[in-house]
Please model this.
Amino acid sequence: VQLQASGGGSVQPGDSLRLSCVGSGRALSDYRVSWFRQAPGKERQFVAAIRGGGGSIAYADSGKGRFTMSRDRAKNTVFPQMNSLKPEDTAVYYCAATFSVDLRSENAYLSWGQGTQVTVSS
Model:
């Protein structure tokens, strides 16, 4: 499956943003789909994941209570809804697809999107 991430932008603290990860070549519902992010000068870190059936299965502590994952099967798309954004959420966000249950390991992922920049600043 090929992944295309989009929806990033520049927002103010407290704002919301919804990213998109569109799949092509295969149904995204066949995979667990996760989002990672990489801030300048830092390692890429796991953010959240959604199971093939559509239910969210994992969130990093940084996103709990603020980020919600959803899936639109007809559009072959996964959406993370990010609310109450903070400056520390500033990063390039990547979506990735896996069959593995080891969601926090980057090596478990078969396909990655190209990344979309999210900047949170007043």
Observations:
- The chain has a mean pLDDT of 93.
- The CA atoms of residues 94 and 115 lie 4 Å apart.
- The chain is about 0% helix and 50% strand.
- The two ends are 37 Å apart (CA to CA).
